User: What shape does this take?
Amino acid sequence: MIGAGSAGLGVSYFLSQQGLAHRVLDGGRIAETWRTQRWDSFLLNSPTIRSLLPGDTYEGTDPWGAMTCQDFVSYLENYAERHHLPVSTRTRVTELVADQGMFRVTTSDDVLLARNVVIATGDQNRPVRPPMSADLPSTIAQVDCPAYRSADSLAPGAVLVVGSGQSGAQITEDLVLAGRKVYLATSRTGRWVRHYRGGNMLHWLTLSGFMDVTRAEVIRLAGRVPTRALIGATHTISLQSLSAQGVVLLGRFRGVEDGCLIFGDELHEHLRFGDEVSANTKRLVDEYIERAGPDAPPAEDDPGETVEPRLPHPPIRALDWRASDLGTVIWCTGFTGDFSWIQLPGALDADGQPIHVDGVATVPGLYFYGLDFASTRNSGIVPGIAKEAALLVEALVERSASLTPIT
Assistant: This one.
């Protein structure tokens, strides 16, 4: 097992339950990316009761609250200890190759042989910047969203956040609440309300089966794997609510021209798309409540959605970075995974990303876990671990049972 984050620990739990000898290797500490790729005020988007790993039950007093990042790291450390998971930290894997029907795993400390390897490092740990980032003047500091910590950590001046997905919108709110002047280059991102009809929206979507929709069906409906919808950890965040707090909303960032940052004219389209996704999601929950019959109060308006947006008039298509006193650009433009250490023919595609079906690689004995939308909408997020890690381990156990014992 490579990776000791929530995904790797969840798989390790099920391997231990099956009595399968294994080791969990991580180049850093348990939950390293949770420690180093989150901002200071970060809260988990999933409610606490749905952020527990396999084998645990909630015993607190605030099941629908949101854990801080620090609390979640402590929880993962405690989880590994309580369940006696065989984690080896500070053990960086530098190469994975085939070796006479087995896998040779070279680490910073040793060389190991294994018949099965589960890679649980995820595919959301390496930030992606658009090529036009190279055109920005050197006087503007550029920060990838995993490196953002707080408003105080940034250079003086206004801040441009590029991308209005989960990280971009939450970082934008963190900045404006700290009193910074913020411009937000928006993107086509859906939105969910935090609470609806007396319950947590993620809870409703889980009960209704929405989160279990397969990757293939998601792609059929959307034409591609979509960006995850924006949802605030404790309250609804929308482009409208951000603008009402003083954030200047812009269209998509297009590049640099004649000393100005250039933006598209998609802002109204992005506002409409967020509203449409929210309305469709609430309609799905309404249909579930009518079908299943749980006791739920009528729908109420959410102030995060009904607030009147404050939009620049005329729309800003070109921003003079000097006149606007722009000091920092924060890139919230997506992630990919770093699998460059995997040297197995057929394991990765032309972009260096895993080739798999439901986490089972094309290379026998190789598995990937924790990939975004790998099997369903639940894949790659903490609430999906209990169910999907169990399924992966079932596949691994089935293969192991067919192998000739090593003598």
About this structure: The radius of gyration is 22 Å.
